[in-house]
Amino acid sequence: GDDVENLTPADWNAVIGHYNEIVFARTTPEQKLRIVEETKARGDNTVAVTGDGVNDAPALRASDIGVAMGAGSDVAKEAGKSVWSFSDSK
């Protein structure tokens, strides 16, 4: 997560242009949104985001696939048009 803040435009181009799949972990809601925006700005990419809080709603909405956790906030669950909600119950 901390590395996201230090990426330059050239770094984003290298990461997104070089790999077919990328996973970012331990990111803040603000970093999630930046990842979505930077990835989508660099071509025909599909972006999925997971989140459970109100602050995750902008990234969930901006992504192609938003995965809201079942125990998360209603705002996160309602964000975006492609939000899936999973519950811990079996």
What is this structure's SSE topology?
Blueprint: H1 9-18, H2 29-40, E1 48-51, H3 57-62, E2 65-69, H4 74-78, E3 83-86
Parallel strand pairs: 1-2, 2-3
Radius of gyration: 13 Å
Query: Taking strands numbered 1, 2, ... along the chain, how are they ordered across the largest sheet?
Result: 1-2-3
Q: What's the overall geometry? A: globular
Number of strands: 3
Structural class: alpha/beta
Low-confidence stretches: none
The percentage helix is: 25-40%
Give the end-to-end Cα distance, rounded to a whole number of Å.
31 Å
Mean pLDDT: 81
**Major beta sheet, specifics?**
3 strands, parallel
What is the count of DSSP helices, taking H or I runs of 4+ residues? 4
- Listing every helix as H and every strand as E from the N terminus to the C terminus, the arrangement reads HHEHEHE
- Beta-strand percent range: 5-15%
Task: Please tell me about this protein's structure.
The protein has 90 residues and is of the alpha/beta class. The chain has helices at residues 9-18, 29-40, 57-62, 74-78; strands at residues 48-51, 65-69, 83-86. It has a three-stranded parallel beta sheet with strand order 1-2-3. Helix 4 links the parallel strand 2 and strand 3 (83-86). The longest helix is centred in the middle third of the chain and has 12 residues, at 29-40. It is globular. The protein starts with 8 loop residues before the first helix and ends with a strand.
